[in-house]
Design goal:
alpha+beta, about 15% strand
């Protein structure tokens, strides 16, 4: 049977308990559209565990016969966001002891996970660099590295982190290169600072961008094959 945990609210404005009239309330439940304090709701014996430590939260919840989710309304995002849990004090103490007992093992696991992520991220960047140079063989190698690193930065949401970027989609890779040229090789940024609307600024610098891309697509004399960026096949 699925458990349904009580929801406790941290009110944004001063509220009083509809039953005992105490207030202002730090936390409350809403019962029949009325604010009720934790003591009246039979939750007053629970202690607050702030969100953030996943292992401690999971263990305290598993050891607590009664627990509740604590939320607060975010006005800017217009939604309720989880702040932590209310759990039994004995359950929290037992969870803290368990976490201390295996803290070293969990720390080693975090290091291993970080190393695996670093290897994976380096692989994404390297694959992107290789594809950039395949499409633009005359690009300076150091510039290809710079673009690949920027486009694949973790948590950036840039091209290298999208599904198309990871699949080395030609359009996505070219978009990353075009963006770099726009900001580095044209006066686009200075146009924006002078108040030129973004779409107008892009139109102005578009010929300069295309000129740079054309020059990078031309394979330097004496540089051997690879695959053709236009056909994806090896030249005869």
């Amino acid at each position: 049977m699925d458990l349904v945990a009580p929801v406790v609210v941290e009110p944004l404005r001063r509220r009083r308990c509809a039953e005992c009239r105490r207030g202002p309330l730090e936390r409350m439940i809403v019962e029949y559209n009325r604010p009720v304090c934790l003591d009246c709701a039979d939750l007053g014996h629970l202690v607050f565990l702030r969100r953030g430590d996943t292992a401690l939260t999971r263990r305290a919840r598993e050891r607590s016969a009664l627990w509740a989710v604590v939320v607060r309304h975010n006005r800017r995002r217009t939604r309720y966001e989880r702040q932590g849990l209310l759990v039994e004090e004995a359950a929290l103490a037992a969870a803290e002891e368990a976490c201390l007992a295996d803290a070293e093992a969990r720390a080693r696991r975090r290091v291993r996970d970080a190393e695996r992520r670093a290897v994976r991220d380096a692989g994404i960047t390297e694959a992107l660099r290789v594809e950039i140079l395949r499409l633009f063989p005359a690009m300076p190698p150091e510039r290809a590295v710079e673009i690949a690193v920027h486009a694949s930065a973790k948590g950036s949401g840039r091209v290298g982190r999208t599904a198309a970027g990871r699949a080395l989609d030609r359009g996505a890779v070219t978009a990353a290169v075009r963006a770099s040229v726009r900001h580095v090789d044209t006066p686009y940024d200075s146009l924006l600072m002078r108040g030129v609307p973004r779409h107008q600024a892009r139109t102005r610098v578009s010929p300069a961008i295309e000129a740079v891309l054309r020059s990078w697509r031309e394979r330097p004399p004496g540089v051997p094959g690879g695959t053709s960026p236009d056909t994806g096949t090896r030249p005869a």
